[in-house]
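Re: the pair you flagged

First of the two:
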Amino acid sequence: LPRPSFHCDNDRAQGERMPQEFDYIVIGGGCIGASTAYHLAKRKAGSIALIERNAFLGEESTGKCAGGVRAQFSTEVNVRLSLLSLDCFERFERELAHPLQFLQWGYTFLLANSAQAAAFKGYRNNIWSKLGMQTDWLEPADIAKRLPYVDTDGLVGATFHKRDGFVDPMDKACKCEAETYNGFEDDDGCPDDPDTDGDGNS
């Protein structure tokens, strides 16, 4: 993909109109929308418009979420999707040549009763291990050693997955858009050499 060049001008305000036909129109410039536009451009799917009603990307739910990235779920479909997401986050900087605020610190689930412990052991044995997840089971003594700031009174165990972590969701949305900026038109009032035929020609 071409390296993006950033600029914003007032051509549209002076009468230039955005093309009215596109092969794909993506509504919303959050994490999902920016990623969708990026992958369409990566596949050279055709002309793409990303429509965002706000002045900046990621101002709605993307900018309000905690940014947790984890694969410890109770259903196989969620685990599969999350593992694919982790793969993407782990190769993000290499693929897009932009740094990403992805902190892969791991996720620990603290379990306070035997029912929770039994449920998580079931997820770990029947779903996570089957899909290749390498998780740790922690007894209370293990929790105290690994996480000395946690009060282990009342805890019966915990699970830990080192590939989980946190990402800045607005950073992710903007980096996806930046990488594909020459491949589609971002309808925020700042056109940047839009590709209107999918082949790099304006």
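Second of the two:
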Amino acid sequence: LASEQIDEKHMQAARLLPAVEQVLGCASLQYHDVSAVLSTVGPGQFTGIRIALSAARAIGLASGKPVIGVTTLSAMAFQAIAYARQHQLDAICSLLPAGRGQLYAQWFDTALNPMDEAALVDISDLAHQKMACYVYEQHRPIAALTGQNIRAVSLHAGRFGTMMCHENWSMIQRAATPLYVRAPDATLPKKQANLIINKILVK
């Protein structure tokens, strides 16, 4: 397993493809060696979602490999399944800060079946249920979360690879189309996808 993480918020588009190539090099692989391309589809920052999906589609198109989407919220819930089952909890609630005093939220059962659609909720309306596990991203704590059965999870790329081996993987994979929840207010550079495709084809 090889992975690379980009921490610069304003250099994602420029650094994404070099990072992909570095990961492939570490694993002694070429683009044609991969079986599929996996990308998160949101919810999250609009520009980040569009950059990721544009790159994933371009790599899939150039390499002839399928492109699979997974929501950030389901990836978070996946990491809490073992804890929820161990503590005999009924459900998992994934939460992500959405700005403007709101959270992206979605409920899953302990088999990873979505119990509702991803939605925006006000932080002030967040009600804690005793028989549920609440999950947040470890670098983005939510002050309103208090009490037991609260889990911090990682959105490191390496975590997503393990999801594909899970027994309930088919329940959370989806088309690689963006899940914004909130209407987008950002645009993707028009030439980005073509630049990625051309670079891969040259190789």
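Residues 46-63 form the longest helix (18 residues).

-B.
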